[in-house]
C-alpha cells in the first residue's frame, strides 16, 4: 500500500511539473527579429515563383560560373593550420582523405597541403571578395577549428562583409557558433547538430515549448532518421517564436514538398 501511495504521489508531482513546464514555455513572449539578411525576395524556380530563397551549393569547381548566375549561395568553408579561410568541396575532401589515408583534420593541415591542383581543389575565400559582396550566403564551417572565430572575422573584414548583413553562419559543432556569437552577436546563426538533437528530444517528450532555440534560423533536411523533421508541432512552435527555417540540402523530388512548408529558403545541390 505504501508503495502504491508513493507511486501515485510521484506520478502526480511529475504530471504537475510537466504541466507547469508546458505552461511556462507557452507563456514566454517572442518578438520577430529584424535583420537585413531576412529581406524578402521572390525567386523563380522550376516550380514557378516562390518567396523561399533557393541557396545553391557551390564547390571550388562550380564557383566561378555559379557566382555569375546565382544570387543565393551555400559554401562549405574550413580553416587551415596556417590560418586561411578556404572554400571546399566536402565530399571531394572526404574522398581524398579516404584514398590517401589522411587522418588529420583540415584545420591541422596547411593550405598548400590541401590544394592539389585539381579543378575541385580548395580555394581561398579572400580571392572572391568582389563576387561575394552582392550575394546572400550560407557559410557552413567544417570541423571544429581552435582559431576558427578569429580567422573567420578577420577574413570577413578583409573582404568587406564584416557587417554580417548578407551571410548566415552555421556549423555542425556548437563551439564555432558559440565563440563567434560571443564576438559578433549581430551575425545570423543556424542550428548545430547538438541543438537539433535537443529540439527533437524535447519535442518527443511533448515539451518543445520549453526548448531553447539559440540559433536564429533552423536548418535541416526534410527527414530526421527517416522520419519527417518539420512536423506540425515543430512548425507551429517555430511560427510562435517567429523563427525562420531553411530546408536542405534537398534531394531529387523534394522541392515541391519543401516549398509547401513555406520555408525562408531551401538548399539545393
Description:
By secondary structure, the protein is of the alpha/beta class. It has a single domain (47-268), classed as Phosphatidylinositol (PI) phosphodiesterase (TIM Barrel), CATH 3.20.20. Helices cover 38% and strands 20% of the residues. It has 10 helices and 14 strands. It has helices at 2-26, 60-69, 90-100, 111-114, 129-132, 148-158, 174-183, 193-204, 232-240, 255-260, and strands spanning 43-45, 48-50, 53-58, 72-79, 85-88, 123-124, 136-141, 167-171, 188-189, 217-220, 223-224, 227-228, 244-247, 265-268. The strands form 3 sheets. Strands 3, 4, 5, 6, 7, 8, 9, 10, 13 and 14 form a 10-stranded mixed sheet that branches. Strands 1-2 form a two-stranded antiparallel sheet. α6 crosses α7 (174-183). The longest helix has 25 residues, at 2-26. It starts with a helix and ends with a strand.
Strand-helix topology:
Layout: H1 2-26, E1 43-45, E2 48-50, E3 53-58, H2 60-69, E4 72-79, E5 85-88, H3 90-100, H4 111-114, E6 123-124, H5 129-132, E7 136-141, H6 148-158, E8 167-171, H7 174-183, E9 188-189, H8 193-204, E10 217-220, E11 223-224, E12 227-228, H9 232-240, E13 244-247, H10 255-260, E14 265-268
Parallel strand pairs: 3-4, 3-14, 4-7, 7-8, 8-9, 10-13, 13-14
Antiparallel strand pairs: 1-2, 4-5, 5-6, 11-12
Helix pairs in contact: 6-7
Amino acid at each position: 500500500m505504501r508503495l502504491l501511495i508513493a507511486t501515485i504521489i510521484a506520478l502526480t508531482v511529475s504530471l504537475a511539473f510537466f504541466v507547469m513546464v508546458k505552461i511556462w514555455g507557452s507563456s514566454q513572449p517572442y518578438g520577430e527579429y529584424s535583420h537585413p539578411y531576412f529581406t524578402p525576395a521572390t525567386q523563380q524556380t522550376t516550380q514557378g515563383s516562390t518567396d523561399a530563397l533557393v541557396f545553391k551549393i557551390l564547390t571550388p569547381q562550380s564557383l566561378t560560373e555559379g557566382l555569375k548566375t546565382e544570387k543565393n549561395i551555400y559554401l562549405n568553408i574550413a580553416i587551415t593550420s596556417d590560418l586561411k579561410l578556404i572554400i571546399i568541396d566536402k565530399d571531394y575532401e572526404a574522398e581524398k582523405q579516404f584514398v590517401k589515408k589522411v587522418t588529420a583534420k583540415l584545420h591541422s593541415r596547411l593550405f598548400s597541403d590541401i590544394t592539389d591542383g585539381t579543378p575541385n581543389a580548395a580555394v581561398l575565400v579572400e580571392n572572391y571578395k568582389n563576387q561575394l559582396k552582392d550575394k546572400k550566403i550560407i557559410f557552413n564551417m567544417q570541423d571544429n577549428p581552435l582559431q576558427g572565430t578569429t580567422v573567420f572575422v578577420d577574413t570577413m573584414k578583409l573582404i568587406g562583409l564584416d557587417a554580417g548583413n548578407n551571410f548566415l553562419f552555421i556549423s555542425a559543432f556548437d563551439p564555432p557558433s558559440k565563440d563567434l556569437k560571443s564576438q559578433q552577436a549581430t551575425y545570423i546563426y543556424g542550428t548545430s547538430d547538438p541543438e537539433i538533437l535537443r529540439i527533437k528530444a524535447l519535442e518527443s517528450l511533448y515539451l518543445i515549448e520549453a526548448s531553447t532555440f539559440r540559433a536564429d534560423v533552423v536548418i535541416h533536411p526534410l527527414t530526421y532518421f527517416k522520419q519527417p523533421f518539420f512536423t506540425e508541432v515543430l512548425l507551429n512552435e517555430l511560427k510562435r517564436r517567429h523563427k525562420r527555417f531553411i530546408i536542405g540540402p534537398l534531394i531529387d523530388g523534394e522541392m515541391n514538398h519543401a516549398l509547401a512548408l513555406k520555408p525562408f529558403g531551401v538548399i539545393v545541390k
